[in-house]
Task: structure prediction
Amino acid sequence: MSEEGATTLRRMGVGLEVVTLSWNVVGVVLLGFLAYQSASVALLAFGLDSLIEIGASAVVIWELSGRGEARQRFALRLIGWAFILLAAYLLVQTIVVLSTGHRASPGSGGISWTAATAAVMFALAWGKHRVGTRLGNPVLVAEGRVTLIDGVLASAVLAGLLLDTLVGLWWAAPLAALVVVFYAVREAIHIFKE
Result:
């Protein structure tokens, strides 16, 4: 690949990360408000996941702005730790919610935002995987998996909110988070083995 082609791909990668970063900054604020309004632990957890995604995007933008294998390894370790923090938080939160029988009162705002976020994150994850693979950048590819998890989590929270709202299954959203815990741990192990 020519240097010009690599530069173009790096710019595309940074652009994808800036979109991810911007979406999640808005999401943290909005989800904080919606979680407070509805007392939804699922929405609060999703907001905290957005904070991890903000950190991961910042790491990738930093990594794409320079070169070197040591820089890539350090960036991958940071993303691996973000996966571990996300899994630990979701596991503890799920146990607390299920053991206390906490019941949220989700509204249309949370449902709408999580649906939009799922669609946006899946599109961004695909773009990061494609650009990262073409560029040969494992950090961008790994962060694309973080974005994919964000989309999966949005889908799980959405399903839980809908099941709670439409059928009264209050435990559905926290239970769905366990799928994300498994995936996050698997990805962290994969990153640290490399």
User: Anything to note?
Assistant: DSSP finds six helices and no strands in the chain. The mean pLDDT is 85.
